Amino acid sequence: NSINDGLSVAGPSELVAGSADDKLDADYIRRYLGDLTPLQESCLIRLRQWLQETHKGKIPKDQHVLRFLKARDFNMDKAKEFLCQSLTWRKQHQV
């Protein structure tokens, strides 16, 4: 049971729509990302969905997205800003 049912990833990315990696449910988060509060899980899910809708190219892995959220104390606006800066820098420097 996934909250992402019906969403697909457009364009080239590290994920394939419908793959196990795309399932951001509570069990997946707990198993692969650790114990998060419901608010933290919500932030991760919303940031991942925002990336899928707005970012062209490779989508960072969940662990990478979570690092940005943790570094900004789960402040969505700050995490988005710094994640965008990082992705822009990586694209410019072909990293």
Helices and strands in order:
Elements: H1 26-33, H2 38-54, H3 62-71, H4 76-92
Helix pairs in contact: 2-3, 3-4
> Structural class of the helices, strands and pairings?
mainly alpha
End-to-end separation: 35 Å
The tally of strands reads: 0
CATH class equals Mainly Alpha
The CATH superfamily label reads N-terminal domain of phosphatidylinositol transfer protein sec14p
Strand content: under 5%
Which shape, going by the Cα principal axes? globular
Radius of gyration: 13 Å
The fold-level CATH name is: Helicase, Ruva Protein, domain 3
Q: How does the major sheet shape up?
A: none
Order of helices and strands: HHHH
Overall mean pLDDT score? 75
Low-confidence stretches: 1-22
**Domains counted in the coordinates: how many?**
1
In helices, the fraction of residues equals: 40-55%
InterPro entries: CRAL/TRIO_N_dom (IPR011074), CRAL/TRIO_N_dom_sf (IPR036273), SEC14/CRAL-TRIO_domain (IPR051064)
Protein name: SEC14-like 1
Organism: Nothobranchius korthausae
Domain CRAL/TRIO N-terminal: 61-86
Descriptive overview:
It holds the Pfam family CRAL_TRIO_N. It comes from Nothobranchius korthausae. This is SEC14-like 1. Residues 61-86 form the CRAL/TRIO N-terminal domain. InterPro entries: CRAL/TRIO_N_dom, CRAL/TRIO_N_dom_sf, SEC14/CRAL-TRIO_domain. The chain is globular and about 35 Å long. It has one domain (20-92): Orthogonal Bundle (Helicase, Ruva Protein, domain 3). The protein contains four helices and no strands. The protein is an all-alpha fold. Helix 2 (38-54) packs across helix 3 and helix 3 (62-71) crosses helix 4. It has helices at residues 26-33, 38-54, 62-71, 76-92. The protein is 55% helix and 0% strand. The model is unreliable at 1-22 (pLDDT under 50). The termini are far apart.
